[in-house]
Design a protein that fits this description.
about 100 residues, mainly alpha, Histone, subunit A, two-stranded antiparallel sheet, 2 strands, glutaminyl-tRNA synthase (glutamine-hydrolyzing) activity
Amino acid sequence: MALSPDEVRRLGLLARLELSEEEVTALGPQVASILDFVEQLADLDTENVEPMTTALDVDNRWRADERVAGLTNEQALQNAPQRDDDCFLVPPVLGTASVKGDS
């Protein structure tokens, strides 16, 4: 399945990739090869194949869910670089909020 340069650019856009013209030219045949392989998979008879989450026969070993005591506030804050009473003090992530009347 050959892809046009516009189709490769569209795939790049969907993947949020900025592709140069050289990359469009190089990736076109590679993506076409991948799509050809996927088409081959569609030809397989999967009528009697049970759905599975992994190709390996794996048993999960889960530990018992037991209730245990958590940290006290003091224990949680003991290594905090900065704190404000009983809270972590961190720099603002989204900037500072403007107050009405500020210009």
